[in-house]
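Lab notebook, bench 4. The sequencing result for the construct came back, and we need a structural model before the next group meeting so we can plan mutations. Quick request posted to the team channel:

Model the 3D structure of this chain.
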Amino acid sequence: MTYALPACTGRRASRSLVLCTAAAAVFSASSTHAAALDFDHVFSTRGEPAATHFQATYLAGGLEHHVEVWRDGDRRIRRRTDDKAESFAVRTPGTPDYRLSVLDLGRRIRTDIDRDNLYRIGQFTDWFDLGHGLRHPKGEYRLVPAATPHGAARAIGACEWVALVQGTQTTHVCWSTTAKLPLLIQAADGRTVWRVTSVDHKTIPDQVFAIHDAGFIRNDANADIERD
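Done. Here's the predicted structure in token form:
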């Protein structure tokens, strides 16, 4: 289970992208339980707000990180992590395809890649992952409604606890059916590994999604991957 944004390193920008796009806090599982408790049912986005802006902290490598996300329905997403990386995703509503632009703010490199090529290099990041902080499942799992776990942090709003059981590990997720976000994630060892610290649903100005990349080196990862 991974909640990290690793540093953007590597010999090639397209390889760095694999790490950059791990900005969100994620977890893995896949359905062996009743259909009523599959991932898409429990973490449903049906009726989600037209606009969402939230900030969250998460643990990775023993350190706390910060992520800020702006989500314009199913059209545009912007993520900023630790003031070191930004990701901009744009898609045509109703389709699974999207185009992702990742800015390494320290090295001033912009990398552009399409969803299909992300999949080709083994980075199975989908639209839900980018905008909600959870990855669609892989591997065997069960989702079980749960009581508040011992030692749980206080969420900023109302949410419903769900236990994600994978083998001998149980992770607790407190899902807001209003914001359509995991407000808290508590790991099996009791640590709070994800916490939403603020959320609002005000209309997001278009300029928030403008990419400011003057002076950046531009890398077309699509072309790079296709040459491999």
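Residues 1-36 have pLDDT under 50 and may be disordered.
Will bring this to the meeting.
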